Amino acid sequence: MIKEYRLKNNLSQEQLAELVGISWRHLQRLEHNEEKTRVSTFKKLVKALNLPDDEILKFIKN
């Protein structure tokens, strides 16, 4: 889901990582579900990607 919305927003991994304040490698792991994220990082991702509520709920359920 993160990758899908990152691409919809025309952002590279490096750009989104910088907006959120994480490394591009951490973002890459999140996109591939290799790693969990902190709530504070998740909030920044939601804001940066303008995620709709239904997508946020899907992410939380997984």
Summarize the structure.
This protein has helices at about 1-10, 15-20, 25-30, 40-50, 55-60. By secondary structure, it is mainly alpha-helical.
Highlighted features:
62 residues; 434 Repressor (Amino-terminal Domain); mainly alpha; globular; 5 helices
Overview of the molecule:
- The protein has 62 residues and is mainly alpha-helical.
- The chain has one domain: lambda repressor-like DNA-binding domains (434 Repressor (Amino-terminal Domain)), CATH 1.10.260.40.
- The chain is built from five helices and no strands.
- The mean pLDDT is 90.
Task: Give the SSE map.
Blueprint: H1 2-8, H2 13-20, H3 24-31, H4 39-49, H5 53-61
Question: Rg from C-alpha positions?
Answer: 10 Å
Largest sheet: none
Order of helices and strands: HHHHH
Number of helices: 5
Report how far apart the termini are.
Answer: 11 Å
CATH architecture: Orthogonal Bundle
Work out the helicity level: 55-70%
Please identify the structural class as seen in this structure.
mainly alpha
**Please, how many domains?**
1
Top CATH class: Mainly Alpha
Query: How much strand content do the residues show?
Result: under 5%
Specify the oligomeric state: single chain
> Which whole number gives the mean pLDDT?
90
Low-confidence stretches: none
- Topology-level CATH name: 434 Repressor (Amino-terminal Domain)
Choose one word for the global shape. globular
CATH superfamily: lambda repressor-like DNA-binding domains
Instruction: State the total count of DSSP E strands.
Output: 0
